[in-house]
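Deliverable D5.2: sample structural annotation.
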Amino acid sequence: MNTLPSQHPLASHNTAAPDSAAPLRGPDQARRPHQPRRSRPPGRFARLPELAGPGFLPIALFARLPLAMLTVGALTLATAVSDSYAIGGLAAGAVGIGSAVGAPVLGALADRAGQRTVLLVAAAVNTLAVVALILAAYLTQASGTPADAAAVVITAFLSGASCPQVGPMARVRWMALTTREPEAGRAPASLATRRAELDTALSYEGTADEFTFVLGPALVGLLASIFVPWLPLALAAVLTATLVPAFAVHPSHLAVVPARRKGEAGVGHHADAKHAPRAGALAWLKVLVAVLAMVCMGTFFGSLQNALSAFSAQFATAEIAGLMYAVMGLSSAVAALSVAYWPRRFGPTARWVWAAVLMAALSFLLFLPAGIWPMVAVLLVLGIPVGPVMVTVFSIGGLVAPAGRMATVMTALASGIVAGTALGAFLAGQVAQSQGFTAAFVVSLASAAALAVLGGLAGVLLRRGKAKADGGGKP
């Protein structure tokens, strides 16, 4: 592993012989102490491979792809085989419900037993569940009613519930890597440096999520249309069986110490570790606010997807709604990367509130377009505040998570998005059916406004918690 000598605190104690080719120095220069040549520090994102170790970024990126393929893959397979949109919708809904229920359970188990064990078991179970879903779909292809497709619904639920939560687990690792004690002989990083590294890592994670949730459905549509409808799910199973174990055993998992091997601290809460057993109602209220924010974010996504389907059907064809939605995902991913460069004095709650307010304000633009290309332009602009809000809420979730419950909170936040997406799709679908796509955009606007309100509430709770901690520390 290459290192930059100027970054090491002992680099100035260089005992090597001087270079014979060095220019002659004058008397004054000769008396000056030798100062090493300062090398330019690496960029913020170039620091991430150094923190996590070789191979972590590509493995963690593509190991989360099966989760992005699963819902759309189940919908595509069940609809194609049964020739029923109702059964396809049931399969997709079962995957979503299973993921929303199973993710926090996997997170809680990872907090107790460690990520490696939980991820290895989940990868094996999920691979079998997805294979069972493919078999169930073809065994019940002649079903005439949703009740006849019980096997499809059950296996879809199990596939969602057992799907390894790579994204949340990766965030937990970043939080551990940016707060752990330095190696022997190295000076500890300042608090500002650690915060900058964590913001950079979480910005990258937001972009990685956006990338996979754009690539996953597109890959499903491409493979199913060109080849056979079961191929996307088969590919997801192969990726789960290979990449998730690679992520599970990657050395970065050693930074996260499970609760069974420590009597105190969880990740990122070293100072308050001894108080972990007494995490009270205020701590969990902060977590609840963050989870509700992710439910609102999911509601925004789900309602926008359904409203865009109705909109595109009015002006072109409903099938292009996914491509239009992907435009927002691209601008959101780029904006998420930019959070790493935002000023530190612009704190997390301020970022949350102002980005959500901008998100709600830009949502009014959804009511203006009367054609496909104007709507594409609106979506491109609308995605700009979306990525920063997601990055910030995940960051605050890590900040307020009770000690030893980091994976539980991260997976609960991810589950909030899944549950909210289902809720938003349902609400917007009902409104669009009865009142048209314009009214369906109201659901997206309302969820963005709710995000801003929750951001303000989070700020109040964080200030209250800080004041309480400061007061508790006084004699």
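Annotation notes: The radius of gyration is 25 Å. The chain has a mean pLDDT of 82.
The annotation will be released with the project's public dataset once the embargo ends.
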